[in-house]
Amino acid sequence: MENNLLSHQENFKKVAEEIINSSKYMHLKEKENLWEKIAEIIERIFNRISPETYEPYNVNPIGSQNLFFVMLILLITLLLFYLIKSQKNVVKSHQRVIYGETVDQNTTYEGLYKKALHRENEGKFRHAIRLYFISVLLYMNEKSLWFLDDSKTNYEIAISLKEKGFKKTNNFKSMGDYFEYIWYGNKQIDSVNFSRYKEIAKELLLEVKNYSEKK
Known about the structure:
By secondary structure, the protein is mostly helical. It has nine helices and two strands, in the order ααααββααααα. The chain has two domains: 2-93, no CATH class; 97-214, Four Helix Bundle (Hemerythrin (Met), subunit A) (Up-down Bundle).
């Protein structure tokens, strides 16, 4: 009987591994060690079923064994569903909206900078200004100079930067104030002032890079 139970356990784990290693779930395995979580639960289940307590039905042993096997397959399917759903919730919880732009763990300052360039080429300077400013904030976050916190004002951020010895603190304050004036005031901006604003953005990005390299 003990060998019979061990055989069921080995067969089940083999099938479970085939499911986890399939192309459908491979990305989850890479990201979250999904199989380790499921294997731990499976092991607990089999540990609870000792050879003394496991008794297949006498009427049809083969049928009862197959039913046991199917029930365990159903269990792993339910676990996969739960873990996939949990992973989606984690991804959503990592998303935040900064000045109207949704960012997550995959958003980079380079991506936002390119998006700003695209808006600039379209002549949509207001949108480009917003994206340039957010790209600066995101770069500061990537370099651990400032962590994204939409509850903080530009003034509070500037104070923090000054305390850390960031040389372009005044430039950041000017850039943030001008962004708010243009964006929230729904103001138009000409190409000359936009070019100045863009230069400040470039200077800030360079200074953030220099600051992180000196640490």
